[in-house]
Amino acid sequence: MLKQNTFFSIISILGTALAIIMIMAIIITDEVKNISVAPEINRDRTLYLTFQSIRDTTNGRDNTNSGSVTYDIVKDYISLLKTPELISPQRTSNAVINMEGSDENMSAKVKHVNSDYWKMLSFSFIEGKPFNEEEFQSGISNAVISESTARKVFKGENVIGQTINTNFQFYRVVGIVKDVSPIFTRAAADIWVPYTSVKHFNERSYDVMLLVKNKNDITKVHEELRKIEKKFHDDELTKMLYLRGPETHRVNKMGLWADSEKKMNEEVKIRNRKIGFILIIILLVPAINLSGLNLSRIKKRTPEIGVRKAFGAKRHIILIQILWENLITSFIGGIIGLIFSVIVVFLMRNWLLGIPQDGSIPFSTIFSIPVFLSVFAACVIINILSAAIPAYRASYMEIVNSLTNNDKTS
After folding, report:
1. Rounded CA separation 220/304 (Å)
2. Which of 218, 308, 336, 405 has the smallest C-beta neighbourhood within 10 Å, fewest atoms?
3. How confident is the model over 23-41, as pLDDT tens digits?
4. Taking the CA atoms of the chain, what radius of gyration do you get in angstroms?
5. What are the percentages of helix, strand and coil residues in the chain, rounded to 5?
6. What is the mean pLDDT of residues 140-145?
C-alpha cells in the first residue's frame, strides 16, 4: 500500500509526524517538569509553601509584609504540622567559592537545607554521606558538593575532608553527589550546607517542602494551615497571617495563585482546559487535511473493495482493514514525530524548561510510559479522525458502484 501510493503515504506520514511533534513537545515538557524521578522521587507527594503575608494593624496602621516564609513562622508554626511526614525549609543563594589557600575563584549555587531534605530526595553519592540531624542542630560547617564542583575546585585530589571556602565561610566536605540536572529545581545545586551553619539564619526566609503519605493528605494539610493562621492571629492579636497553599508540585510549577483551595482547583481546571483545547486543535487540523488525502486514496481502491465485497467480504471487515492500514501509517508518523519532538525539546530546553544550553535532560524523564501512551493515543485519534469517514463510505458502497468506481453509498 505504501509503495503503490508513495506520494500520499509520504504526505500522510509527514502530516502525522508534524502533529505528533507539536503534541509531544507539550506533553514531554509537562512530563519533565512533573514526573517523580531521582533525585526528586517524591514529586507526587510533595507540597510547597513559598509565600506568606502578614498584615499588621497595630495602632490603627495597616501594613502588609509579603514574601517567602520567614524562619520564625517555620519554627513556631509550620513545625507544628502533624500530617506531613517530613518538613524541609530551604533557600538558594549564589556564592564565590575556592579551595582553602587558593586564589582561583568560581561562582556556585548553594542550597541551605536541613537533614530532612536528604530523606525527601534521592541523591547518588559518589563518596561520603550527607550531614545528619545532630550535625544540623549543632550548626556544624559540613558541606555536600557536586561531582563537577569537586573536579573544578580540587582538581582530582582526595576531596572528602578537604575545606572549601564559600563566601569567606569555610566548610568541611563530607559528601560528593553526581551532578543534578537544572530541571530538578529543588535538588539542583553545586553545594548543599546546613542552613543553621549560616550567620543570621534565623533572620532569613525560606521555601518549605512538605512530604505527605498520599494525595488524600493535601486537604488535611490545608486545614492545618488555616488553623495555624488562626493561632497566629490569637497569639499576635493585631496581626494576621496568610500562607499560600499548600501547593502540589504541578501547581507550583504552573505558577498559579489563588487565596483558597477551591479557587486554586478552579485555576488548575481552567489551565487544563486551555491545554486540552490547544491539543484538540493540533489534532483536528492535520486530521481534516489527511481526511481529504485518505478519501482520494480510498476512491482509487474502490474497484478492489468491490471485488472483495463480491467474494463475500463483510462491511466491518473492510472498514477495519482500511482503519488498520491507516493506523500503520499513523504509527510510522508517530515514531518519527516522537523522535523529532525529543530533539525539539532538547534544542529548545532553555525556552521550554529554563535549562541552560549546556544543561542536560535525563533520559528517563523523556522516554516514560505516559509519553509512549500519549503517542499511541494521538496516533489512534488522528487515525480515527482522518480515516473513519472515508473508510465508512468505502465499506458501505454498493458492489456495482465499487466495481465501476461510482462514488455512491447504499
Report:
1. 65
2. 405
3. 778 877 877 888 888 899 9
4. 29
5. 55, 20, 25
6. 94
CB 385 within 8 A of CB 291: yes
Asked whether the beta carbons of 175 and 130 are under 8 A apart, the reply is: yes
The cell for 329 is 501509517
The residue count for the chain = 410
Q: Give the pairing type, strands 205-211 and 86-99.
A: antiparallel
CB 370 within 8 A of CB 291: no
Distance, CA of 171 to CA of 194 (rounded, Å): 10
Distance between CA atoms of 4 and 47, rounded to whole angstroms?
56
**Residue 392 C-beta-side C-alpha neighbours within 13 Å:** 7
Bin 101: left if φ > 0, else alpha if -120 < ψ < 50, else beta: left
Q: What is the pLDDT of residue 341?
A: 82
d(CA 90, CA 192): 10
Element (H, E) at 82: none
**Beta pairing partners, 99:** 164
Residue 410 has pLDDT above 50, yes or no: no
| Averaged pLDDT score across all residues of the chain | 82
Q: Are strands 247-248 and 142-146 parallel, antiparallel or unpaired?
A: unpaired
Cα 259 to Cα 261: distance, rounded to the nearest angstrom: 7
**DSSP three-state, residue 106:** strand
